[in-house]
Amino acid sequence: MNVSHAETATAASAGVCGVAGSFAVAGRTPEFVVAPVAALVVDFTPGVVTTAAIRGLGDWGHRLALGVALALTAGILAGVAFGAVRVGGRSEVPYTSVAAGGVASWLLTIAATGAPKASLAVAGPVAAVLAVGERGWAVGRDGRRSRVSTSRRKVLAALGAVAGFAGFSAYRGADITGVEPGPVADVTSEAVQREADDMLARATERSLGVSGLSGLVTPTDEFYEVDVNNVNPNPSDGKWDLSVTGEVETSLTLDFEELTATTVENRFVTLRCVGEALNGRKMDTAVWTGVPVRDLLDEATPRGSGACCVLVRAVDGYYQEFPLGALEESFLAVGMNGRRLPRGHGYPVRLLVPGHWGEINVKWVSEIEVLDEEHQGYWEKRGWHGTGPVNTVAKLHAVNRPDDASDDTPGDSADESAESPTAERIEVAGHAYAGTRGIRKVEVSTDGGETWADADLSKPLAGEDVWRQWRYAWDAEPGDHEVVVRATDGEGNLQPEEFAQPFPSGATGWVSRTVEV
Ligand SMILES: Nc1nc2c(c(=O)[nH]1)N[C@H]1C(S)=C(S)[C@@H](COP(=O)(O)O)O[C@H]1N2
Ligand SMILES: [Mo]
């Protein structure tokens, strides 16, 4: 191997090991050296591309951005290391490259992440690789470039060491979760905890219990998650505060303790992402514990003249604008399903806006600015219209053959024996949601929309912004059956039949599925 190849290989190894070392110590937290680069990648990606990536690639868009950021970060660190090798080559002092590369990569990482200690996990491996390089091949001890030709064995050993370190780091870093949320009683009271637990029990009771269909409350680790950034904030309670600014009589700032010292209550709330497919999986419900925004807003007192809307900002740089009226009904959640909010859902505090698309339910909320004129939010800037109330939807997620399942009893419909000996009992089920309008009725057609029958609905859960489950069973003759589902909201509006893609205003249409018997 000639010298410049050795230099390049040393620099590249240093880049990879710097990123790996950082991940081993920081995991997917903002102290990971790739986090700020990934945020820049997302920020610099034009809105049309982001939108296309969301529509075409889904979560793969995120992985792609992360991959690009990983490569970029390793490349930048490799560049630093390469410079260090060159500087070392010119110096008479041994290990100049090590000192130069270590210090430069440390300072650069501090500048990007603001975390001096965690940045040592970048500088350390970079320096170590440079030390091996200086000893082994890149730079001669006398300061001149070494002429030793590196054996194949040495190259393989070096490659193996880099790969091994990267593997070890991936394994170590994957376990680092950041804040670990405890029971919600830790920051509220036993009474609030008990109420949340009772509500969870009630949701289980009222769930139709259809196999293959998720319940009325989504377990926290299955609750969908949509973030603009690849790496979520990892704030602590002590550092968090919320300010209310702009067109108000009195600007306020309150910390976590002040927030939770006020009225704390529990609510069932459903969230749905405007970007999800018509029959998608980005719609879920939890019991949320939190504080109504109204009192806070009354204290700040928006200026009667003028104040129309609010801009809500978050720690991750996300921001959304929507009407003041929607904020008045909103809720600042500190708990989810009886525990404190998990990091991925906005720890320590997120906003919940009844009946509105998920995107304005700002996580890691930090500021509410009252405005006297409209402004575009993060997704509106990228072409979406997702700041208003949700569209009505009835999803079809379960198709069962209760007769087949030995442990499954079809319940109240069991005694309706099949008309024809060849007919088979088929059960279809799903969730329906219409925001604060509520769900009045779900109808099912098994003949492609010719005739309709009412589905059973789960008993409603308390609250004005909660989904319901529906279920329908019939005896199907052999053949293909085109099953169609449609919901009517609490105001009597049948959901529109016309199909629309999620972009830009949320999917519409009746979900249908062919069931073969
Ligand atoms: N700060 C912040 N808030 C955010 C987002 C985000 O990326 N950053 N994503 C929004 C979107 S698009 C949706 S659909 C919901 C999803 O909430 P969840 O991840 O808790 O399900 O959060 C919203 N709030
Ligand atoms: Mo969303």
Automatic annotation (TrEMBL):
BP terms from Gene Ontology: sulfur compound metabolic process
Keyword Transmembrane among record annotations: yes
Domain Oxidoreductase molybdopterin-binding: 236-379
Keywords attached to this entry: Membrane, Transmembrane, Transmembrane helix
InterPro entries in the record: Ig_E-set (IPR014756), MoCF_OxRdtse_dimer (IPR005066), OxRdtase_Mopterin-bd_dom (IPR000572), OxRdtase_Mopterin-bd_sf (IPR036374)
Compositional bias annotation for Acidic residues: 405-418
Sequence intervals crossing the membrane: 34-57, 64-85
Ranges where the record places region Disordered: 401-423
UniProt keyword annotation of Transmembrane helix present: yes
GO MF annotation, one: molybdenum ion binding
Domain Moybdenum cofactor oxidoreductase dimerisation, first and last residues per copy: 423-498
Pfam families: Mo-co_dimer, Oxidored_molyb
PANTHER family membership: SULFITE OXIDASE, MITOCHONDRIAL, SULFITE REDUCTASE
Protein name as it appears in the record: Molybdopterin-dependent oxidoreductase
